Amino acid sequence: MYELITNRNDIRNELIETVRCFVTDPQANCSVNFTYVQGENIRIFIAVNFKNYRYSFPSHCESDKIEYSRTDVYICKLSLYRALSEFFAQTLAWGSLTGIRPTRLAARMLNSGVSFIEIAEKLQKNYLVSKEKAELTVEILKAQSKHINDRISLANNGSTERSNLANLYVHIPFCPTRCSYCSFVSEGVEKKSWLLAPYAEALAEEIRRTKELISSQNKRVFSVYVGGGTPTSLEPESLYKVLSVASVDNTEYTCEAGRPDTISKEKLHVMCECGVNRISINPQTLHENTLRRIGRGHTVEQFFAAYELSSKFGFVKNVDLIAGLEGETPEDFEYTLNGILKLMPENITVHTLCLKRGSADAQTETVRTERTQDMINYSVNALKARGYVPYYLYRQKQSTGNLENIGWCRNGFLSVNNVTVMEELLSVYACGAGAIGKLLAPGRIQRIANPKDVLMYLEQFEERMLKKQIFYQNQFTTHA
Ligand code: SF4
User: Fold this and answer.
1) Are 192 and 340 members of one domain?
2) 259 bridge partner residues
C-alpha cells in the first residue's frame, strides 16, 4: 500500500509510477509527500515515511511548451526516484525512466544532434540508467536508424517523408483459452464460437472501407499487422475473408499465430495465399507444467510441430517467450531459450511477465524481480552470442522488476511494423473490436478506439465507421 500526497496532481500518474517501482509488496506501507515550489529556483520537498529529502533545480524557461513540460516532469521524477532510491537503498536498472520508451527518448536526442556515445552517457548521468541498459538502448537505436529510414524511403519513392504512410492494424479478439496472465482484449473461442463468422464478415468490411479511406487521403499502407487475440482462432474460410482483404502488395504483412494449437496446414496455406510473409508462433515456455499452470492449453510438442509445419511455407518467424513466469527458475528459462535457439527463428521476442489489472493472477503477486532480472541478463548474453541484434524495446506498467520487453532479430530480419508502431513513427488505421487507431502530428498523438465488446462492435458498426471517417478526416478533434 502506498499513499501519495502532492501539489502536482497534474503529473500524479507519473509520480505514482515511480513509487510503484519501489513499493511492490502489497503489505508494505509507504507514505510519500511530494511538494513542488517554483520561485527563483525550483525546489522539491519529498518526505518518504516522514524521512525528508530536498532538491533544487534552476528554473527552466524553454519557449517550446512541450519541451517545458518534459523538463518539468523529468525534474520531478528524477527527484522522486533519488529520494525513494535512498530511502529503500535500492537502484533500478532503468533509473528514473518510467512510462517512457527509452528508445524514443534516445531517438529525440539523436535527432537533436547528440551522438550515440553521448546518448549512452546522458541516459546514465541524467536519468540514472544503468550502463548495461544505456548501452542496450543505443544498440537498439543504431539497429533502427540503420534500417527504418531505408525502408520508409523504399516505400515512398526515395523520400523519408512519413506523413503519407500509415500502418494497418487488424484485431482478432478470440483465443482458444485464456492465459492466466493475459489482459488483452480477447474472448475464449468456445463460448463465442457463434460470433466468429459474423465478426470476420464485419471486420472484412471495416478493413475494406479503411483501406479506401487511406487511399482517399493519398496515403499508402506501409505495413499490415493482424494480431489479437489469436487470429488463427478463426476457421480457414473466415481467416481468408479477413486476410485477403487486408492484403497489400509489396508490404511487410504479419499475422500472429500465437497459439500453436490453432495452426493447421490449411490455415498456413490461407496465410500464404493472402500474402502474409511473417508469422508469430509463441510457446512462451518449453515446460509442460508451466504451460498447464498458465492456461495455455497446448503442449510443447504442439509448438514444435506447428513450428516445423510453418517452416515449409517460408514465413519469417517470430517466437515469443516470457521471463518471470510463475514457478519458473532462471534455469527453466535458460532451458527454454536454448531450446528455441536451436531452431534459430528470424525473430525472438523476450517479454517480462506483466501482472495487469484484469489478469486472473493479478492478486497473487510474487516477488520475482531478482530471478527475472537474471533471466533477462541471460537472454541478452545468449542472444548476442548467437548473432541476434536487439531492435525494439518497450516497457509496460506493472512488469516484473520494471523490466523491459525486447525484440531480437537475425541480421536483416527486423520487423518494420514493430519499430514504427513502438516508436510511434506512423499513424495507425486500426480495425476490429478493441482496436485503437492513432493519428500522428508533430508533438501530438490522437487515438480512436473501437468498442472492446464484440457484440457492441457489431451493433455499432455503421455508427463507428462514420466516427472513424470523421476522425481521420478532421484531424485533432476529440473523439470518445
Ligand atoms: S494467447 Fe495471448 S491474447 Fe490469447 S489469452 Fe493468451 S496471452 Fe491473451
Assistant:
1) yes
2) none
Q: Is the CB of 184 under 6 A from ligand 1?
A: yes
pLDDT in tens, 73-118: 999 999 999 999 999 999 988 999 986 688 989 999 999 999 999 9
Cα of 177 to ligand 1 centre, how many Å? 8
Ligand 1 binding pocket includes 173 (Cβ within 6 Å): no
Spatial separation of the C-alpha atoms in residues 294 and 43, rounded to whole Å: 47
**Are both 182 and 69 inside the same structural domain?**
no
Strands 389-395 and 41-48 come out as unpaired
192 lies in the same domain as 44: no
Of 185, 259, 322, the one to substitute when testing ligand 1's pocket (max ligand atoms within 8 A of C-beta) is 259
- Count structural domains, the chain: 2
CB 303 within 8 A of CB 283: yes
Could you tell me if residue 152 is inside a domain? Answer: no
pLDDT of residue 326: 86
Q: In 3-state terms, what secondary structure has residue 476?
A: coil
- 284: Cβ below 6 Å to ligand 1? no
Taking the CA of residue 178 as reference, the ligand 1 atom at the shortest distance is 5
Tell me whether residue 419 is in a domain. yes
Q: Residue 355: pLDDT band by 50, 70, 90 thresholds?
A: low
DSSP-assigned beta bridge partners for residue 57:
42
- Please, are residues 472 and 439 in contact by the beta-carbon 8 Å criterion? yes
> Of the candidates 49, 68, 83, which is a domain's last residue?
83
Same domain, yes or no: 174 and 27: no
Q: Say if 346 falls within a structural domain.
A: yes
Residue 200: give the domain boundaries. Answer: 162-431
- Please tell me whether residues 392 and 291 are part of one structural domain: yes
pTM listed for this prediction: 0.90
pLDDT tens-place string over residues 146-196: 888 888 888 888 888 888 999 999 999 999 988 988 877 677 777 888 999
Give the sheet arrangement for strand 41-48, strand by strand.
Answer: 2-6, 30-38, 41-48, 51-58
CA distance 416 to 407: 12
What pLDDT is stored for residue 155 in this prediction? 84
Nearest CA to ligand 1 atom 8: 182
Which whole number is the average pLDDT over 401-413?
Answer: 90
Instruction: Please indicate, yes or no, whether residues 327 and 194 belong to a single structural domain of this protein.
Output: yes
Does 142 map to a domain? no
Ligand 1 and 409: CB distance under 6 A: no
Is residue 293 domain-shared with residue 385, that is, in the same domain?
yes
CATH number reported for the structural domain that contains residue 183 in this entry: 3.20.20.70
